[in-house]
Amino acid sequence: SHPHYPDQVLLVRSHEGFRLHSRRMVARAEDGADARTIARSFFRLKSAMRGHEAYEEQKLYPYLEARWPLSCDPLREGHHQLDAAEADILNEFQRSDGPATPALADALRRHDEVLHEHLAEEEDVVIPALLALTPDEFASYYRHDIRTLLAQLERA
Question: Helices then strands (H, E): number in the chain?
Fold first, then answer.
């Protein structure tokens, strides 16, 4: 119901997609689907997430930290926690040839839990900060690179 939503909260749609994709992989693993098929799906998800995380860490978080008195360090830590959960999944993929094993399903479930926790925390921090920007500020954020944005904030 916020007047700036959804124009200023583009990342929510990405988050919804990540959640859905992750839940589907867990369900497929629990049903004993082919581990190689799940691996391909997992690598597609992680590829999309890596691009998303890079954008957050290189532009979104630095901008919000410069614009508002907040720290995105816990959100960066969430990315590291996701990487650790990914390592467990990769180990299980190496052991799984054929149907997904219960251990693979467990590793995917743990990753899914970390993902959901991270995205919820990120949305709690980032969305209010984005919605607090005026439409002109958001348009400027969207248009400019981080160096330009930080320089603009220093001059203000």
Answer: 7, 0
